[in-house]
Amino acid sequence: MNSGRCANCMFMRKRCPSDCIFSPYFPSKNPQKFACVHRIYGASNVGKMLQELPVHFRNQAVDSMYFEAKCRIEDPVYGSVGIIFQLHHQILVTERELAKTRVEIALVNYFRHLQ
To answer: What is the mean pLDDT of residues 93-99?
Structure first.
């Protein structure tokens, strides 16, 4: 038995076994992380996904699930894709601004060369 229950076992109000798949990734000190992931994916599905992954990939998978779950809760329609769209739009705006600045620099250099 672990010294304390993980966030999953606390949420489910059950004992936390020593081999609990959730314990390393959802500590009891951060119950919001588990609640967020559970709300979107469900504890059973998260457990199945973690069991299918090699141990060295699990932490990254949990972080990814948590990020996607937070995004989905904040924006139920677009989730993390909404952030990608916003960033893509910012890149396009910045590229246009950079192109305009390059043209302005080229014009300044051209007129300096004429003098």
So the answer is: 98
pTM above 0.85, yes or no: no
From 103, 20, 30, select the one nearest 66 (Cα to Cα): 30
Q: Which residue spans within 1-115 are E strands per DSSP? A: none
Tokens read off for 63: 């972080």
- Backbone dihedral angles phi then psi of residue 106, each to the nearest 5 degrees: -60, -40
Q: Are 23 and 2 in contact (CB under 8 A)?
A: yes
Exposure of 91 by Cβ count < 10 A (0-12 exposed, 13-18 middle, 19+ buried)?
A: exposed
Alpha carbon separation from 56 to 7, 30, 49 (Å, rounded): 21, 21, 13
Tell me how many degrees the CA angle 17-18-22 measures, rounded to the nearest 5. 75
CB 11 within 8 A of CB 32: no
